[in-house]
Amino acid sequence: MTHTHQYELMVILNPEIDERLVAPNLEKFLKVITNDGGTIDSLDIWGRRRLAYEIEKKTEGVYAVVNFTATAEATQELDRQLKLSEQIMRTKVLRAEDAIAMVASEKERSDAKAARKAAAPAKAPKA
To answer: Which of 4, 35, 50, 126 is deepest in the core (most CB within 10 A)?
Structure first.
C-alpha cells in the first residue's frame, strides 16, 4: 500500500486563457492523480489577479488552487506535466500539513509581535 498525502497545488495560468476553460484544462492534468487512485478534493478558481512580480513579461495571471490526496509519485508527475504546459506560468505544490504549518507559523509570528508590543512598557505620561 503506497502512502497518500494531502496536497495543495497552486497554479497560475496565462491571463489570456478564458476563465471558463481553466477547470476543464486542469482536469486533464488531474487525471494523473485520479488514474493513480488519488482523489481531487476541491478545485477553486480564484480568477485573474495581479502578480506579485512579472512572470514571462505578464503582470496578471489566473489563479487556481487544487486540494487533492495522492501518492508522492503521482504528485511529482502532475507537477512535471503542468510545467510542460504552455498555458501554465507557475505551479507550487505544498503538502497540506506544510501549508497549514506555514499559515500557523505566520500567525505565531504576528501573535508574538503583538504580544511584544503589548508587553512594551508604555511611556509614562508627563506630569
So the answer is: 4
Which of these, 87, 77, 14, 83, lies nearest to 51 by C-alpha position?
14
What does each of the 127 residues of the chain score in pLDDT, given as a tens digit? 578 999 999 999 999 999 899 999 999 999 999 999 999 999 999 999 999 999 989 999 999 999 999 999 999 999 999 999 999 999 999 988 776 676 677 778 778 887 888 887 666 666 6
The Cα–Cα gap between 70 and 36 comes to: 8
CA atoms of 31 and 26, how far apart (whole Å): 9
> Which one-letter DSSP state was computed for residue 88?
E
CA distances from 17 to 60, 65, 91, 121 (A): 11, 16, 16, 55
**Rounded-to-integer distance, Cα 10 and Cα 93, Å:** 6
Which of 6, 7, 4, 12 shows the shortest CA–CA distance to 82? Answer: 12
Tell me the angle at which helices 72-84 and 22-35 cross, rounded to the nearest 10 degrees: 150
